[in-house]
Amino acid sequence: MENGTEHLIAAIENRRGIKVDRKLVDKLVSASRENPNGVGLCTGTGSFGIFASPCVNASTPPSWLLQMVRPNLAAMLQRVSKQWMRPPKVPTRQWLVEYFHLPPEGADLPEAYNPDYVPYLWRIFHALDDSVVRMVAMQKAAQIGWTFGLVGYIGKRIHTDPCPIIIVF
After folding, report:
1. What is the pTM of this model?
2. Which GO terms describe its molecular function (predicted)?
3. Are 20 and 79 part of one and the same domain?
4. Residue 68, Cα to own-chain centre: how many angstroms?
5. Taking Cα atoms as reference points, which of 86, 123, 139, 132 lies closest to residue 149?
6. How far apart are CA 72 and CA 84, in angstroms?
7. Is residue 37 part of a domain?
């Protein structure tokens, strides 16, 4: 490996915390020497990369490069694909039990929210979860757990399916 390339690799590893595959760099250097108009190594001031000249079909990388990249790409896609997917649809009542905790400052029972204490809100939660229902209106008494129920529903929507929402008290 050339001294300049070795120096550049050391700089990349030190500054950016990236581990460079030296075998891949060696293959790229030898490929650029064998075919200066083909796929090769590009080292400039502070840059490091792979190039393909216009005379080569850039959409088809060499087979040895594909063999090295495919396993890493497959593993990376498998790791991040879970983060791209939406969480499964969960009823509000179930989500409240799993994720929603009442604050100690404003609740008589500062613990995980338990919808079993407010069974009269179950059908409201069901209506809020129904995609056909466009508006839920309720005439209610004071101090029945309505505010915590709605805050929990908003939290569930933020967590599972963010969307524009208007709530008027």
Report:
1. 0.52
2. ATP hydrolysis activity
3. yes
4. 25
5. 123
6. 18
7. yes
